[in-house]
Amino acid sequence: MNWYLSCLKDHYADFNGRAKRTEFWMFILFNTIASIIVSAIGYLLGISVLSSIYSLAVLVPSLAVGVRRLHDTGRSGWWWLIAFVPVIGIIWLVVLWCLESKK
Q: How many angstroms separate the CA atoms of 29 and 47, rounded?
């Protein structure tokens, strides 16, 4: 949970530097859990826009931690754009995020 909060508080729009695998994947895990909880609450309360507001709120930190993770593997943040290639793009991006850090 500390990694998630660190990305939101300390590195909200920080596209410089590096993010270790642990920081990146813990952010993804807790972001997914929070998204599911917010969606469920929105559904129960009948406020469908609640999950959209949460998604917009974490869009910048999600992009930033992804870019910092790519930096940690020795790649430019522009590799995010490979996700626009249908099917194979997002798979390749996940593979890049799983690679070991470069010194």
A: 24
What is the pTM for the complete model shown?
0.86
Q: What is the Cα–Cα distance from 32 to 26, expressed in whole angstroms?
A: 10
Is 29 contained in some domain?
yes
In the chain, what is the straight-line distance between the N-terminal and C-terminal CA atoms, in Å?
26
> Each residue of 12-62: pLDDT tens digit?
888 998 888 998 999 999 999 999 999 999 999 998 899 999 999 999 999
Looking at the structure of the chain, the number of domains it has is 1
Within-domain flag for 77: yes
Q: Backbone dihedral region of 100: left (phi > 0), alpha (psi from -120 to 50 degrees) or beta?
A: beta
- By three-state DSSP, how is residue 54 classified? helix
Domain membership flag for residue 35: yes
SS3 56: helix
